[in-house]
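[Q] Does anyone have a clean structure-token version of this?
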Amino acid sequence: MAGHSKFSNIKHKKARNDAARGKIFTKIGRELAVAVKEGGGSDPSNNSKLRDAIAKARSNNMPSDTIERNIKKAAGEGAGDNYEHITYEGYGPNGAAIIVKALTDNKNRTASNVRNAFSKGYGNVGTPGCVSFMFDEKGQIFIDKEDTNIEADELMMLALESGALDFIEDEESYEILTEPKDFSHIRLTLEEEGVAMANATVTMIPQTHVELSNPEDIKNIEKTLALLEDDDDVQDVYHNVR
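[A] Here you go.
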């Protein structure tokens, strides 16, 4: 919604104020805790889920001592034990598709908050699978051209030889797409080559987009997305609104 490209949206999110950044750190802290639990321990060299969560934390400018503190807390107190993954799917204005992924220790609270966010924007939560077929799950890595001295051809060959599906260049950035199962390996390969990544995550990419021209529809979808992203239980929100 902000900016005119996926990379512009990433930069917009990173420019948020300190209060918003604090919420992001809270959410990533949960991801770190669950990664310790589900991935098999606090050593990132033996836990690919934790490596990816740490990479996400770093790309969101979480301080190293905060990352370490969250990992130690999870390893010592089992901080990830009470959280479970829940996915909600639903519709916004003009049939816009929305997927919400949450980590929660209280399913009733989260379900209520998600339904409220949809209803405030005059949308509704649907049944599991009602919109996910409109998206493809892919690993997605963005590299800011200003942050790398590697030539485009060299970077493309590095990505493709590591198993990437696609390499896309635009005015500001390079985008690398992977299969979810290959994401961790490719991200680690780039990291070992000293490539600075603006964002690296497994995401849901819409197959088609919905254009909203009615100001009321735009206002309503923005209201729903703002409420969802403000919820500590909500980790990621995907939609097909251009």
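[Q] Thanks! Anything notable?
[A] The beta strands are 84-91, 97-104, 124-125, 135-144, 166-169, 173-178, 199-206, 234-239.
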